[in-house]
Amino acid sequence: MMGGGDVERLIQLLSRLPGLGPRSARRAALTLLRAPQTRLIPLAQAMEQAAHSVRTCSVCGTLDSSDPCSICADPSRDHSLICVVETVGDLWALERSRLHPGTYQVLGGVLSALSGIGPEDLNTASLLARVSSGEVREVILALGATVEGASTAHWLQEKLAAHDVAITRVGHGVPIGGALDVLDDGTLAAALSARRPAQ
Ligand SMILES: [Zn+2]
Q1: Helix (H) or strand (E) holding 189
Q2: What is the reported pLDDT for 188?
Q3: Distance from Cα 92 to the centre of ligand 1, integer Å
Q4: Which of 91, 130, 139, 155 has its Cα between 20 and 30 A from that of 72?
Q5: Residue 47's pLDDT band (boundaries 50, 70, 90)?
Q6: What are the two backbone dihedrals, phi and then psi, of residue 139, each rounded to the nearest 5 degrees?
Q7: Is 163 in contact with 132 (CB distance < 8 Å)?
Q8: What's the 70 CA to ligand 1 centre distance in angstroms?
Q9: How far is the CA of 5 from the centre of ligand 1 (A)?
Q10: How far does the centroid of ligand 1 lie from the alpha carbon of residue 63, in Å?
Q11: Distance 189 CA to ligand 1 centre (A)
Q12: How does DSSP assign 28-96, residue by residue?
């Protein structure tokens, strides 16, 4: 036990964050507690604010403090072009690169028998609704080149086949290892520009 229950609890919660084991959690806790005014309190306030305001966009599935999100609500985006990604992290990666002028659909996962993720677990209803509305001309499947990513892309393609919409996949000559958010901008740009009709 270090510093009593509150400190211990803070360390425990921090250690559950990705990339932070118990040792880094203790260092982070110490950094926060040593500078309450400049670090601990602003962080606590930002977390509380986020907990109250951040929600899932009912159109695309990303996280934002407004619904529809700032991307879906932006009239300068190309709403006829939808890029389908697995996670919000993938969307953030594409947004950082400023390569995609359209909107997104965040599936929230990929089909995986191993992890028990089936079609009903993926956020696709709003995608089908958008495509059915007739205002979408192209759906870009930017899923990882894993077995699960490929089978999810194939499954989506079949679901969308009945609609008058072009379906493309990001270039497979580039090493997408399953997570777009670890790619550098150059590789992302290559993946997007090398997209080709899905088949
Ligand atoms: Zn949205």
Answers
A1: helix 185-193
A2: 74
A3: 12
A4: 155
A5: very high
A6: -115, 120
A7: yes
A8: 7
A9: 40
A10: 8
A11: 22
A12: HHHHHHH-IIIIIHHHHHHHHHHHHH-EE-TTT--EESSSS-TTTT-TTSEEEEEEEESSHHHHHHHHH
The pair of structure tokens assigned to 112 is 């995986």
> 153 CA to middle of ligand 1, Å?
20
Domains of the chain (ranges plus CATH)?
Answer: 4-53 (1.10.8.420), 63-197 (3.40.1360.10)
Å from CA of 57 to ligand 1 middle: 5
Place of tokens 């995609």: 100
| Assessment of whether the complete model's pTM goes beyond 0.70 | yes
Q: How far is the CA of 67 from the centre of ligand 1 (A)?
A: 7
Q: In this predicted model, what pLDDT tens digit does every residue of 131-147 receive, in sequence order?
A: 999 999 999 999 887 88
Å from CA of 73 to ligand 1 middle: 7
Closest to 185 (Cα-Cα) out of 93, 101, 91: 93
Question: Max Cα separation, the chain?
Answer: 63
Within 13 A of 171's CA, how many CA atoms are on the CB side?
Answer: 12
Residue 63: closest CA among 99, 94, 87 = 87
CA of 56 to the centre of ligand 1 (A): 8
